């Protein structure tokens, strides 16, 4: 029997100079295997998945050497459209991988492109939806779904095409723990059906018991190979040394009681008082916190299940929620929501939304008086981005962009910084760096982090605020 | 983000084939907006009758509020045109007369457009296009466009939120660059999403040489015929008017 995919001494370099080049990569994937590719950011694992689904060389441009074959066919001679029925792909961002506006059409999309008869497509869509248990999501607008639901629709769309090989590139980057469990079930079912599965991931714990072979990549080649059992019994220290995230954390704060709790020593004594944090969408009550005191200068993790009201809470706190009437008292002064916009700043998950200017200096100085240039330089230096001050913010890496956004908030004198999932899709070292940065911000800045990342919480948060069903 | 071909599939009352809607739309454009056959009294009456059709369709779709707003404003303008305008003189005549003239002609098409967008899904629209033998080179880019509208709106509102937090306003310190600040992040985000979207579409076989199937069931039913026949009568009246059979 031929192997599912054979990569022989493959080297690849992106034409646009992106990181993740491959250097004489040898990789054989047998039929029915479930393989995990892991490694630091830029080690080439995403590039490897792109070779497996034909996006290299058919979509991403660059120099490719070596040979890539699927089920005995050479990839260069096979058009990417013809690969579609053989290799299925699930990507990182649920927002940008669906093509239709309604869910049924989306699951059918791939089959429609294969020109299958209508009755066959309907049968397959129905079966895929039943397998993944998303019959209730059929015939809905995709824009109304949560990230986890979107990712399930993407999986159903891939499954309906009945591919032999399924490639997943960081499929959980934007998912919460419940959605990850759902995805794990789906992959388990694929495995039972005998499909070949390749997953490139930063988050590793959820794959324990799923992946039978684990390949650790470094500098564009495979440097270590483990069996599933070996790998998933490695301890955190060893994994961190390899630049990988922990498989599990000793604390799962989601199991703790809701409310505010201190988890590390903290010596501030002042507090920020929130009053009347009550908000409803129509008749549905989303937030119901009559009174809450947050320690000023603390680093507070805001946790809770999906739909618990975390983002409503932070939006209210930043004064971004319309029709919100609560009050915030800082240092004895009471602020209305409109005034809170001046005092608070949210660093969004996609930080590209909030970088406006042509250079880093100009970006940070936006809205500040010219006389503050000295102070701006200090802040940039403290955040380690002074050397990039003349670069265009959009040309920086993800972590550097995050720093630019933080710098501009600090210069504007913001007292409350809110981060929305700052470590989604980050490897160990980048997560560590973000944690270090959040820990060392000025004592008069209060940081709130909306996150599911327990490792990050362990590293930098002094308090946790657990919200469930809009309450504490 | 209701509108742009995002029909609520489970709850929209009478289902018409998109081609029927298109036919009514074109007819309204020819007769109500274009004023074809305006010198024949029978065609003028017929046009008014067909102009009411979009309102009925809106009602069947359960859009009572919309139907009421459109219906009342259309009735008012029509009333003004018939009873008020003939008595006016001078400046009032030119202003009110002109407004009535424009809106009486424009409204039926507008209402039909609103109905069409709110009662059709993208897949139905694309299926109809392909039944009319519009080539894939046109239908695929159009479907991508419809997919992209809501995304761009989402991005637009996120950028707006970010600007609010940075206090970037028209009239602020960098007023001259307001539009640039609004557009640069929007474009960067849209381009990123667009390129990820193209990659995803390729892996799912878009662009294969074979003809795409479309699982969307469209077709002409009794209700389509009930709409098409009275609409088609207008053309008949028009021809009869031209050869002088009706006046």
Query: Hey, roughly how much beta strand do the residues of chain A contain?
Result: 25-35%
Quaternary organisation of the protein chains: heterodimer
- Unreliable spans of chain B are none
User: In angstroms, what is the radius of gyration of chain A?
Assistant: 24 Å
Percent helix of chain B:
over 70%
Radius of gyration of chain B, in angstroms, nearest whole number? 23 Å
Tell me the number of helical segments of chain B per DSSP (H or I, 4 or more residues long).
Answer: 8
Question: Structural class given helices, strands, pairing of chain B?
Answer: mainly alpha
How would you sum up the major sheet of chain A? 6 strands, mixed
Mean of residue pLDDT values of chain B: 83
Class by helix and strand content of chain A?
alpha/beta
Number of DSSP E strands of chain B: 0
Cα separation of the termini of chain A: 58 Å
Task: Provide a descriptive summary of the structure in words.
The complex is a heterodimer of chains A (472) and B (247). By secondary structure, chain A is of the alpha/beta class. In chain A, 31% of the residues lie in helices and 25% in strands. Chain A is built from 16 helices and 20 strands. In chain A, the strands form four sheets. Chain A has a six-stranded mixed sheet, with helices on both faces. Chain A has a six-stranded mixed sheet with strand order 11-20-14-19-18-17, with helices on both faces. The longest helix of chain A has 16 residues, at 177-192. Chain A is globular and about 75 Å long. Chain A starts with a strand and ends in a 6-residue tail after the last strand. Chain B is mainly α and 247 residues long. Helix content of chain B is 71%, strand content 0%. Chain B has eight helices and no strands. Chain B has helices at residues 18-33, 41-60, 64-84, 90-119, 122-131, 136-166, 178-203, 222-242. Chain B is flat, with a radius of gyration of 23 Å.
